[in-house]
Design goal:
771 residues, mainly beta, Maltoporin, Chain A, 2 domains, 22-stranded antiparallel beta barrel, 7 helices, 42 strands, 54% strand, globular
Length: 771
C-alpha cells in the first residue's frame, strides 16, 4: 500500500518536474559532402533516444527544436552516403555539422554533382553551347565565337578566321582543345585554329590574363573547347549532323557514335568524323576566285572510370585545304596600289569547286593520355601526356622560273612542328575552407622548315610550376582566389634558309593573380580580378623574313625584341532576377609593356613572287581598356530582347597615339520569340549588328583607310520534331539577310574585296540511342 502511494506521488509530481526542466534547447547545423565541402540537401537527421528529427533543406541546413537537457545520439543519413553519428551533451543550443562520405557504388553520380558546383572563375567568362553553338557549326571556330561580347575575329579573306579577345589575338590567346593546349602555327592572321567545331559540346571564353592556371602567353585570355563527357550509362547512341550553305554551295556532314559497356568494366568510347566541301564564295556583286575549302576531320576517345580511378585516351586529326583569294597575289607594285584604290576587283570571278594556287594545306594530329586517381580522402592526382604534330604547306600563286613540270605541286613554304607536353596536377579537397591546385608542366617543341625561309628551324623547351588556392566559407558571400606561377623557356634557333643563326634565348618570369567574387543577398554578383602575365617573343616575331603567302604580306622580324609584360584588371557585375531580366557588364583596363605588333610600312615590298603590303614587327608600351555588355530582357513570356555591346580603346603609350588593328565598336540587338516555355521550344530570332567605323588609327600608317560603318541583319530559327519518338532538330539561318555590301577593318583582304553576301544555312541533327 505504501509503494502504491509512493508511485502515485511520483506520477503526480512528474509534470512539475518536467516543467522545472528547461526544454527550450535546439540542435542545428549543416550537412556537407565530405569530398567537396558543398552542402547536401534533404538528408535525414534523427535522435535515437526520442525519434525526434528533421530533414535538411535545399542548402543542407537543419534544426531540431524544443529539446530538454540530456545526452542524445544524433544520426544523419542520406541515400547514397555512409551515415554519421554524433553524441551530444545538451545543456544549451548546439550547432553541429555532419560530413557525409558518399558510398563507393555511387561514386560516378557524386562526381557529376561535384562538377556542377565547380568553383566559378573570378574573371569574366562567356559560354556558348546548345542551340547557340549548333547554329554556327559548319563554320569555323572563330565564326562560332564572334557573337560573344568582347570577342571579334581577325580574318584573312572569307575562309580564314581566328578569335580575338578584347583586342588581343594569336600567341596571346591560349586555346585548350579537350584540355590540351593547341600547338601549331598560332602566329599570323591567316593561321586559324585547327579544330573541328563539331567536336565541341561547349566553348567557353575566359577573358583577361590567365597565365597562372593555363600557362604563359595567356595575356589576352583562354578559349576552352570542351567535348561532351563519355557516356556513363550502358548502351549505344550518337547523332548525325547535316549542314548546307548557299554561299559557296558548301556541304557539311558530321557523325558521332558512342557507348558504354557497363558491368564490372564500364569501358566507354566514342568515334566522330566530319566532312566539308565548298566552292568559291560570293560577295553581293561578284564571286571570289579560288576561295573553296575541303576539310576532313576524325577523332576517337576511350575511357574507363571506376571508383577512385579514371583514365582516357583521345586522338584527333584535322585535315584541310583552303583556297587563298587569287586577287590578293599581284605581280607588281603599280597593280597592287591600283587594286587597293579601286572599289572592286578587276575580275568578278565565277563559281567553281576547284582549289588552285595560292592555297594552304594543313594537317594537325593530337594524341592525349590522361589519368586521375583519388589520393585517399585528401585530394586527386592527375597526369596528362600529349603529342601534337602540325604540318603546314603554303603555295604561292606564281610558278618559279625554270621549274620542271612535275614540281608545280611543291609548296613554297612548308613547316612541321612536333610538340610533347606533360602535366602533373594535384587538387586537394577543402582544408579549413581552402581548396586548390598545385602542378608542374613540361613542353618540348621542334619546328622544321622543310621549304622556304620565312622562319628558321627552332627548338623550344618550357618548364613551369603553379599553385592556386581558393577560399570559400559556406555562410560567407565572399570568395577569394590567389595564385602564382613560374615559367622558364629556352629557345634554340638554327638555320633559316641558307643562313645559319645558331642563337639561344632564355626567358623566365613569374605570373600572379588575385581575384574575388562577392554575392549580394539579392540579384547581384561582383567579380574582380587582377592578373599579371608575360610572353616571350615568338620565333616568327624575331626572325620572320619573307612573303607570308596565306596573308599575301611581306613580314620582317626583329631579333632584339623583348618579352611582353602585362597587368590586367577587370570588374564584372552580374544581375539576374531569375524571372525576366539578366545582364552582365565587364570593365577592363590592361597595360602591356613591350607590346609586339605588326606595323604597316610606307611602301609595299617587291619580290620575285610579286608585290605585297609590307609589315614589320615592332614594340611599344600599350594600354587597352573597354567594356563588354550583354543583357536579356523578357518583354512578355515568349519575347526576349537581347543586347550585346563591345567597346575598346587601344593606345600606344610610347608615341602617344592609337594602336593599329584594334576592333571597332560593335552594338548587337536581337529579338527572340519562343513558341512555348519548354527547354527545346521552337524559336525564331532576328539580330541586328551595328559595326562603327574605326576612326582611332594612327595617321598614314596603313595602305587603305578603315572602311565605312555597316549594319547587318541575321535571321535564325530552330525547332525539334518527333517521328515515332525519334527527335529531329532542324535549324535555318540567314546571315547578312539584306545582302549588304561592306568591308571589315580586321580582314587583311579588305584591301582587295568585299565581305560575303547573303548566306542561307539549313541544318539537321538526328540524335539516337543512349546519350
Amino acid at each position: 500500500m505504501r509503494n502504491r502511494i509512493f508511485y502515485l506521488f511520483l506520477i503526480s509530481c512528474l509534470p512539475f518536474v518536467l516543467a522545472a526542466q528547461n526544454c527550450a534547447w535546439s540542435i542545428s547545423g549543416t550537412v556537407l559532402d565530405a569530398d567537396t565541402g558543398e552542402p547536401m540537401a534533404f538528408a535525414n537527421i534523427q535522435i535515437k533516444e526520442t525519434n525526434a528529427g528533421a530533414i535538411a533543406d535545399a542548402n543542407g541546413r537543419y534544426e531540431i527544436a524544443n529539446l530538454c537537457e540530456g545526452t542524445y545520439t544524433l544520426v544523419c543519413t542520406r541515400v547514397g552516403c555512409n551515415h554519421e553519428e554524433h553524441l551530444i551533451q545538451l545543456k544549451s543550443n548546439v550547432i553541429t555539422d555532419f560530413k557525409l562520405q558518399p558510398e563507393e557504388n555511387t561514386l560516378e553520380k557524386v562526381t557529376i554533382t561535384a562538377a556542377a558546383v565547380k568553383p566559378q572563375s573570378t574573371q569574366a567568362t562567356e559560354t556558348i553551347s546548345g542551340p547557340e553553338l549548333a547554329s554556327t557549326q559548319g563554320l569555323n571556330l572563330g565564326e562560332s565565337l564572334k557573337r560573344l561580347p568582347g570577342v571579334t575575329i581577325l580574318s584573312t579573306g572569307a575562309t580564314i578566321a581566328k578569335p580575338m579577345i578584347q583586342g588581343l589575338h594569336s600567341n596571346r590567346i591560349l586555346i585548350l582543345n579537350n584540355g590540351v593546349r593547341q600547338e601549331g602555327q598560332q602566329w599570323g592572321s591567316e593561321h586559324a585554329p585547327e579544330i573541328d567545331p563539331f567536336i565541341a559540346d561547349k566553348v567557353s571564353v575566359i577573358k583577361g590574363a590567365s597565365s597562372v592556371r593555363y600557362g604563359a602567353d595567356a595575356i589576352g585570355g583562354v578559349i576552352l573547347v570542351e567535348p561532351r563527357a563519355l557516356p556513363t550509362l550502358k548502351g549505344m547512341g550518337g547523332e548525325v549532323n547535316l549542314v548546307g550553305f548557299t554561299n559557296g554551295r558548301t556541304g557539311v556532314a558530321s557523325g558521332l557514335l558512342q557507348g558504354n559497356m557497363g558491368g564490372k568494366l564500364p569501358l566507354a568510347g566514342r568515334i566522330q568524323g566530319t566532312l566539308k566541301k565548298g566552292g568559291n564564295l560570293q560577295t553581293p556583286d561578284y564571286f571570289l576566285n579560288n576561295t573553296g575549302v575541303e576539310e576532313y576531320d576524325f577523332s576517337w576517345a576511350v575511357g574507363l572510370k571506376k571508383e577512385r580511378f579514371s583514365t582516357e585516351l583521345f586522338y584527333s586529326r584535322f585535315e584541310t585545304k583552303l583556297g587563298i583569294y587569287r586577287g590578293s597575289h599581284i605581280g607588281n607594285t603599280t597593280d597592287l596600289l591600283n587594286a587597293i584604290e579601286r572599289e572592286r576587283p578587276s575580275e568578278d570571278g565565277v563559281f567553281s569547286y576547284e582549289i588552285g594556287r595560292p592555297q594552304q594545306r594543313i594537317s594537325h594530329e593530337l594524341f592525349k593520355f590522361s589519368s586521375a586517381i583519388e589520393t585517399g580522402d585528401i585530394g586527386k592526382l592527375s597526369l596528362q601526356l600529349t603529342r601534337q604534330f602540325n604540318h603546314r604547306r603554303e603555295y604561292d600563286a606564281h610558278r618559279a622560273y625554270n621549274e620542271l613540270p612535275n614540281q608545280i605541286t611543291q609548296p613554297s613554304i612548308e613547316f612541321e612542328i612536333t610538340t610533347h607536353t606533360a602535366d602533373l596536377t594535384w587538387e586537394h579537397k577543402p582544408i579549413q575552407n581552402l581548396r586548390g591546385d598545385i602542378g608542374i608542366s613540361f613542353l618540348q617543341q621542334v619546328n622544321t622548315t622543310d621549304r622556304g625561309a620565312l622562319i628558321p628551324n627552332y627548338k623550344n623547351y618550357n618548364g613551369s610550376a603553379f599553385w592556386i588556392e581558393r577560399w570559400k566559407k559556406l555562410e560567407s558571400p565572399l570568395e577569394l582566389e590567389a595564385g602564382v606561377r613560374y615559367d622558364y623557356r629556352q629557345l634554340e634557333v638554327g638555320r633559316q634558309g641558307q643562313d645559319t643563326i645558331n642563337q639561344d634565348f632564355n626567358f623566365s618570369n613569374v605570373s600572379g593573380t588575385v581575384g574575388a567574387i562577392y554575392r549580394f543577398p539579392k540579384l547581384v554578383n561582383l567579380r574582380f580580378n587582377v592578373g599579371t602575365a608575360w610572353r616571350a617573343p615568338h620565333v616568327s616575331e624575331l626572325y620572320s623574313d619573307g612573303v607570308h603567302h596565306g596573308s599575301a604580306t611581306y613580314e620582317k622580324g626583329d631579333a632584339n625584341l623583348q618579352p611582353e609584360r602585362a597587368l590586367n584588371t577587370s570588374l564584372t557585375a552580374e544581375l539576374d532576377n531569375k524571372k525576366n531580366f539578366d545582364a552582365n557588364l565587364t570593365l577592363y583596363y590592361n597595360v602591356i609593356n613591350n607590346y609586339i605588333f605588326l606595323n604597316p610600312q610606307a611602301t609595299p615590298q617587291l619580290t620575285i613572287r610579286g608585290a605585297f603590303p609590307s609589315f614589320y614587327y615592332q614594340q611599344a608600351n600599350a594600354r587597352l581598356m573597354g567594356l563588354d555588355w550583354s543583357a536579356n530582357y523578357k518583354i512578355v513570356p515568349n519575347f526576349t530582347l537581347e543586347s550585346r555591346i563591345s567597346l575598346l580603346r587601344g593606345w600606344n603609350r610610347t608615341i602617344e597615339d592609337d594602336l593599329v588593328l584594334m576592333p571597332s565598336d560593335r552594338f548587337q540587338t536581337g529579338l527572340k520569340f519562343n513558341f512555348n516555355q519548354e527547354e527545346k521550344s521552337p524559336f525564331i530570332r532576328l539580330t541586328m549588328t551595328n559595326m562603327l567605323e574605326q576612326t582611332r588609327v594612327p595617321a598614314n600608317t596603313d595602305y587603305a583607310a578603315p572602311p565605312a560603318a555597316y549594319t547587318l541583319f541575321d535571321l535564325e530559327a530552330g525547332a525539334t520534331f518527333y517521328f515515332h519518338k525519334q527527335p529531329f532538330e532542324v535549324g535555318l539561318a540567314v546571315f547578312n539577310l539584306l545582302d549588304e555590301q561592306y568591308r571589315e577593318y580586321l580582314n587583311r583582304f579588305r584591301y582587295y574585296a568585299d565581305e560575303l553576301g547573303r548566306n542561307v544555312s539549313l541544318r539537321l541533327k538526328v540524335p539516337f540511342g543512349v546519350k
